[in-house]
Amino acid sequence: MAEEMNIQSAFQSVMAANQDIPPKQKQVLAASLALFAQQGFANTTTKQIAARAGVAEGTVYRRYKTKDELLAAILAPFMTEVFPRLIKEFAQDVVSQPYMTRHEMIESIVVDRMAFIQKNGAILRILIREISVRKDLRSQFVSHAAPLLQDNLFPVLDRLKARGELVDWPDSRIAQFMIGTMLTELFRRLLLSEDDAAAVSVIIEFLEKGLAPTTK
Amino acid sequence: MAEEMNIQSAFQSVMAANQDIPPKQKQVLAASLALFAQQGFANTTTKQIAARAGVAEGTVYRRYKTKDELLAAILAPFMTEVFPRLIKEFAQDVVSQPYMTRHEMIESIVVDRMAFIQKNGAILRILIREISVRKDLRSQFVSHAAPLLQDNLFPVLDRLKARGELVDWPDSRIAQFMIGTMLTELFRRLLLSEDDAAAVSVIIEFLEKGLAPTTK
Amino acid sequence: MAEEMNIQSAFQSVMAANQDIPPKQKQVLAASLALFAQQGFANTTTKQIAARAGVAEGTVYRRYKTKDELLAAILAPFMTEVFPRLIKEFAQDVVSQPYMTRHEMIESIVVDRMAFIQKNGAILRILIREISVRKDLRSQFVSHAAPLLQDNLFPVLDRLKARGELVDWPDSRIAQFMIGTMLTELFRRLLLSEDDAAAVSVIIEFLEKGLAPTTK
Amino acid sequence: MAEEMNIQSAFQSVMAANQDIPPKQKQVLAASLALFAQQGFANTTTKQIAARAGVAEGTVYRRYKTKDELLAAILAPFMTEVFPRLIKEFAQDVVSQPYMTRHEMIESIVVDRMAFIQKNGAILRILIREISVRKDLRSQFVSHAAPLLQDNLFPVLDRLKARGELVDWPDSRIAQFMIGTMLTELFRRLLLSEDDAAAVSVIIEFLEKGLAPTTK
DNA sequence: AATGAATGAGATTTCATTCAT
DNA sequence: GATGAATGAAATCTCATTCAT
């Protein structure tokens, strides 16, 4: 699937969004990303970041004037570029196939999105944790994501519902189950630290059945 | 349902597990719980806890000698008592009804567990967040939860599988989808800050269909 | 003169304005005052303050959350209490003697104000230096001092002018010369580090002659 | 008055004393001067200087190896050249007119010196502030200025005193009042940010009367 | 038991200065 | 010469923890 090629890892995207950055600054960004994901933002010191990046502590502050800006530099391009692109790419794929079945749609979503999640697990972890802790980030995220879903995912769902391919629940609920189920894989891997290649196909089957229309 | 009555809110459980505590210490515990859930453990200062509890900062330390002990005092009883009881109660219910259908089992699980999640969302949030950041807590949790599920949930799943009531996936995967789906509700509510009374029945239907055996 | 007794040293006033302060906090305030006066605010580190006060560095921040607040704690009571009281006390003295001569007025002003300047040289040095460097402090000072002079000093000057006891210059100019001349003594002492007991009488004579009406 | 033409602005003098300086270094010097005067030396960063000068931060250090040298480059020529020349020029004027009256002398001093103060207010502000904070600068200034006044101003004062044109106070006191009164104008302008063309003549009259011999 | 001032280790941040390009 | 990224020492500030009252 050509689309898959388009999905860049969020880390690369963060870097792309921070073009023309001197190499040491990239190291700082990479170190921050790794440490924030591993230990959490609040538990990571700039000293650790500097050590991991192999730079002096002052260097951490050269481009990003506060630790919070460092977090923003990681999350912002993700929310404003990577995430939107991800959703729009999906929409394009789907719109070009008006007579998609539920299976085709879910497979189309899950395969690419799971690849994305696996590549960008680190940033997603940071995002999820910080969203649950910072009100400002939460509303920023909601105001970014809501219209994206509204405009790109929901019309597709509605069309499928109209054709009797999808259960008749509110779109937000269907999205909750789709996204949530994919994210459980992130959590599973955290706990079991094991990789399961079969995960994708199982998730597809689970969603496909779970979201089938109610048969009375 | 009688069982529901048995499910105490985690906070009450925490308090129960900390019996004979002077009132000020209870206030400290309650304040910590609220603040940890809202802002995260690392972002909460003992000063904030003291203020919220209406006590002096020194008082925070009378019973719990470190901030970490405070976290432990909240999470430990939850993991060692509340959580096990929750699962065992479920097992007892189910074991007494050998010919349960998938629907009955899932309903039996979800109704009570969702009530539990809704009551104890605060502690769960703390637990999930801290588990993702502390390796020790993670292995502690895994070594607690794994046998519990192994001993209580998995036999039930196996029996249902044997009777063709349940899809033939590894138990851990089925548990992942059941627990994960229920937890998505926590996250949904965090983002949308809206309560949906219909959530439970939708989740039941979603799981029931999603976990049905593959029909070929 | 009874009034002289009323003039408290600004340091005592700063302390008075910071009543019920634990002794260590007073030491912090006193150390800050001394060091700011000696080395300037920007050249004084909180480490120096802590060392001079004989406390830990954290103690410096217990009551005053920033170094700037420490400066404010010293200057604010001076501007809002000591300085106004100083001017009002003068006004009361003078108002009770409607037929004062220029000599009497100037003597009445200079004697007490010079005592004040000598006692509070340290704070005045800080105030003058910081005023010349911070725009906010400057306008704060102007908006405090201007009405005070307007209401208390200028009417007295006008009355003397009307009686031909005082040169017919704008009040602000007369104030400039009176205050300025007194302050030159501060600067002289800084440079020569010598005390001249005769200063007061010389200043009185200089002002008395300098501010006499123009004889044509 | 021809002399007035001779008085160059201190900035020009500073520049003159730093002849053969590449243009970028001049910009650095000018930026430093402006910023030190506005914000104080300690509150000005080399980054600000570089930005204001329109050069890179490294360039600030090409000629002046430390920030202190930058201050020295501004103040030194002022103290060693501008200031001495100012006083000597005055002396030459006066010596050539042995029968000067007090009015003539004061006018001769004040007119030119006030022009000087107005032109060089920025440097004077820096000088005064730093003198009050640095002991080395203070003694340097005293050892420079004292003999200059001793040799050039004091003989003139003595001659006038001998002729009964001037009050019989110590020369240092008379100098204090003359210089101090002129400097009050600097401070007045800082506070009121208004220019008063009449200032010079009022100051002359004030000094002339204030320094008149005591009449008994 | 409770208080809250004090502590000091350590975190964040600043900035004069250096140095490779 | 000029640049600006990098440095690291030192400054400001935070906060879990202790302790005298």
- CATH-defined architecture of chain A: Orthogonal Bundle
Look at the structure and name the CATH superfamily of chain A.
Tetracycline Repressor, domain 2
Can you tell me the residue ranges of chain A where pLDDT is under 50 for at least 5 consecutive residues?
1-8
Radius of gyration of chain A: 19 Å
What's the count of strands of chain A? 0
The structural class of chain A is mainly alpha
> Largest inter-chain interface?
A-B, 39 and 39 residues
The major β-sheet of chain A equals: none
CATH structural fold name of chain A: Tetracycline Repressor, domain 2
Helicity of chain A, as a percent range: over 70%
Number of domains of chain A: 1
Approximate strand percentage of chain A: under 5%
Number of helices of chain A: 11
On the 0 to 100 scale, the average pLDDT of chain A is: 87
What quaternary form is this? Answer: homotetramer
* Helix-strand sequence of chain A: HHHHHHHHHHH
**CATH class membership of chain A:** Mainly Alpha
Which characteristics define this entry?
HTH_TetR (chains A, B, C, D), mainly alpha, 76% helix, 216 residues, Tetracycline Repressor, domain 2, homotetramer, HTH-type_TetR-like_transc_reg (chains A, B, C, D), Tet_transcr_reg_TetR-rel_C_sf (chains A, B, C, D), disordered N terminus, DNA-binding, DNA-binding (chains A, B, C, D)
Tell me about this structure.
The structure is a homotetramer of 216-residue chains. The two termini of chain A are 36 Å apart. Chain A has one domain (2-210): Tetracycline Repressor, domain 2. The model of chain A is unreliable at 1-8 (pLDDT under 50). By secondary structure, chain A is an all-alpha fold. Chain A has 11 helices and no strands. Chains in contact: A-B, C-D. At the A-B interface, α8, α9, α10 and α11 of A face α8, α9, α10 and α11 of B. The structure holds a DNA duplex (21 and 21 nucleotides).
